[in-house]
């Protein structure tokens, strides 16, 4: 009994932790778990077979058999060794009747040799039964030991079943935890996939906007360059107009000097009033024409100057818009870089989740093997 208890202590599984079940399973190898599982099953089968033998009706009837001496006698006569003979006295009477030639009904002839053999066999069996009768207390003690051992084995089986049921309950509990964790992981993965899809869609939109901004920026750069060229042309025309105005002023001064010289050379005394008036009118007309031309050129110059101012204002506006576009592009590029970093972070998190899912799948495989 003590040996059985020691064996049970050695073969007993450790009490599994309720909280850190996953850590416990990961710390153990699959071979160790299978070895404990199969060893436990074999031991339970052995105990169950012992219990079945102890609970068997044949074994219980064997324990309740009659005394050995009476049992041997009954078994001997059941084998028909001597038919219809109940005692040695009757055998002797029958033998005497045969000697006297006085046959009787239901006579059975038994030879002397057979009789001696049967008698000696019976005596030997009776003697053996007597000897066995002294061993009856030992058999009774052995029966008590077996009965106690049977009770202990039944108790051990009940304890093993209880521990196995607790083990299966823990597996079921951890099963629910793993299932809940897997559900949360699926929801998290769907959320991350949705976030990645939205970020990718936003990045595609930003890429389209950046392309549009780049095209607009290139067009504005071209317009700005055209405006710069036009301003340079206006500056050249302004310089030409200034030079032309200076030349006109110089010509006017020369004509004034020429008129003065002519009037001085001719003299007022030699000219009559009509001729003098005619000369003055002609000179006045030339002066008016020159003034009109100068005014027209001045108006044209003012108009060109206004255009130049307008172009300068447009250039400033384009420059400001260009600066705003540059700022927007830089901001969009910064956001794009941040989103790229966020996507990379999400990818790393997804890889980490996939590794966790792989580990959980291995744990589920271990659990399936245990169940």
Automatic annotation (TrEMBL):
Keywords, ordered alphabetically: Coiled coil
Keyword check for Methyltransferase, yes or no: no
Q: Where is the PX domain?
A: 1-70
Q: Name one GO molecular function term.
A: phosphatidylinositol binding
InterPro entries hit by this protein: PX_dom, PX_dom_sf
Name the domain of life: Eukaryota
- Residues in coiled coil: 203-265, 315-363
A Pfam family it matches:
PX
Protein name (database record): PX domain-containing protein
Q: Organism, per UniProt?
A: Paramecium tetraurelia
């Amino acid at each position: 009994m003590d040996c059985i208890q020691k064996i049970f202590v050695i073969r007993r599984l450790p009490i599994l932790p309720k909280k850190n079940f996953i850590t416990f399973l990961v710390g153990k190898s699959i071979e160790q778990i299978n070895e404990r599982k199969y060893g436990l099953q074999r031991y339970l089968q052995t105990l169950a077979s012992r219990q079945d033998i102890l609970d068997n009706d044949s074994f219980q009837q064997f324990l309740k058999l009659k005394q050995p001496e009476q049992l041997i006698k009954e078994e001997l006569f059941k084998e028909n060794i001597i038919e219809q003979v109940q005692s040695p006295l009757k055998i002797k009477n029958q033998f005497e009747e045969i000697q006297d030639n006085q046959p009787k009904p239901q006579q059975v002839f038994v030879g002397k040799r057979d009789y001696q053999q049967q008698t000696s066999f019976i005596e030997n069996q009776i003697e053996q039964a007597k000897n066995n009768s002294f061993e009856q207390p030992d058999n009774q003690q052995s029966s008590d030991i077996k009965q106690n051992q049977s009770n202990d084995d039944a108790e051990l089986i009940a304890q093993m079943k209880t521990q196995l049921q607790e083990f299966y309950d823990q597996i079921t509990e951890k099963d629910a935890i793993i299932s809940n964790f897997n559900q949360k992981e699926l929801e998290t993965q769907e959320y991350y996939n949705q976030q990645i899809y939205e970020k990718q869609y936003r990045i595609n939109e930003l890429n389209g906007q950046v392309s549009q901004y780049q095209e607009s920026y290139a067009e504005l750069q071209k317009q700005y360059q055209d405006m710069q060229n036009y301003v340079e042309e206006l500056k050249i025309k302004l310089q030409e107009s200034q030079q032309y105005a200076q030349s006109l002023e110089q010509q006017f001064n020369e004509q004034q000097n020429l008129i003065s010289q002519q009037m001085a050379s001719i003299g007022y005394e030699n000219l009559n009033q009509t001729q003098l008036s005619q000369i003055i009118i002609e000179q006045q007309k030339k002066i008016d024409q020159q003034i009109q031309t100068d005014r027209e050129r001045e108006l044209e110059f003012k108009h060109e100057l206004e255009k130049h101012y307008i172009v300068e204002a447009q250039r400033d506006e384009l420059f400001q818009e260009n600066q705003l576009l540059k700022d927007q592009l830089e901001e969009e590029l910064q956001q794009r870089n941040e989103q790229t970093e966020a996507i990379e972070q999400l990818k790393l998190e997804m890889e980490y989740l996939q590794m966790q899912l792989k580990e959980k799948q291995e744990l589920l495989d271990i659990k399936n093997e245990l169940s």
